[in-house]
Amino acid sequence: MKFYPAFSAFCASLSLVVLSHAAPNTGSPFYGEAPDAHHPWAVHDQNRPQPKRVEPGTFSSAAQPGQPPSDAIILFDGTAASLAKWESDTKPGMPAQATKWIVRDGALECVPKSGYIRTKEQFADCQLHVEWAAPLAVSGDSQGRGNSGIFLMGLAEVQVLDNYNNPTYADGFAASVYGINPPMANALRPPGEFQVYDIIFRRPVYRNGQLVDAGRLTVFCNGVLMQDATPLEGPGGHMKRSVPIEFPAQGPLKLQDHGNPVRYRNIWYRPLPPRSIEGGTDGALTTEATTAKRHEIATNLRADAAKLSDTAKMLRLAESLSYENDAGTAASVEKMASDYVGGLQKLQGPALEAKKGEAKSVQRAFAYLQKNKILVAPYKPKTQLDALTKAQGWDDVKK
Questions:
Q1: Cis status of the peptide bond prior to 65, with omega within 30 of 0
Q2: pLDDT (tens digit, 9 = 90+) per residue, 97-107?
Q3: What are the residue boundaries of the structural domains of the chain, listed by start?
Q4: pTM for the complete prediction?
Q5: Terminal Cα distance for the chain, rounded
Q6: CA-wise closest residue to 149 among 123, 120, 179
Q7: 73-278 maps to CATH 1.10.8.60
């Protein structure tokens, strides 16, 4: 990491200004590589929103479920009250019915032959945490032993199965994307003990009927990676090849009744931000989305500049040019820059020396904008400022 102390100190004072529609910024403008046609942010952009604060949870043990992170949405916390967040998975068009599954010893237990259950809440892309336990009393083999399933949006299944010393077909193993992709390993604990699934789910995305993102599932079982961003080839299924389909915008989480009294606990999720293809602003964007976001950032910077004066106002307006090179703003910056340099040229002795740090900061800002072809060389105010700093012996000395 490289920075210039005088420039950083000056820019830090500017960074105390709050953008009209964003969190407080931090860092230095005119620093990292400028935005481009597919990235609305500069590298190390001080205007990029800060990550939100999330208090981490705690890890689960065999005997005790852990605490979810502070922003988690709880679907089942071991209490009978949280059972109200679930209902029977009735057929479309049928009235909702209360689930027949029960809460026993802090776990949500499947009552065989009572049917699937689903959350009343609907959601899509998420980080999902689920803990499950097969019956302690071992009964059956292959798919007949401790079988259930976790259905994201009610469609994409992550298999639940007691595969502790119990082989079955690979794409139906515990932590498989059922019927699509086997897990990379078998990391199950013995039956009766709780297994911990952590799942990252991204649904398939279509635009105008055409697939633009296949979606993917990442699954950890007891801390061991099972699925590494496995592409979704549709919702999966039994005995038939999965066919890609367009998922709805949202759907419930479903748990399967496969005839075994599998238990669940500590179920929560965290919604994930939209991908760039869905309007997110991180990662490579389309030129249209990038242009729109850069316009928004520039507009906010110019609104902030209206609250400032003198050099700070000039630099804030100059900063906005990195995002949108508006002719009117560029003309205002050039006028202010010419006035600024003209003012410096009238100073002498200690009064001029006192302006050294500020002048060099402005010089570096102009150099940044010229290097990134935002200001066209030769830029008269920069040429004049370069001559002044050289005459004063303020040039950076390379060692």
A1: no
A2: 999 999 999 99
A3: 5-51+281-391, 73-278
A4: 0.87
A5: 18
A6: 179
A7: no
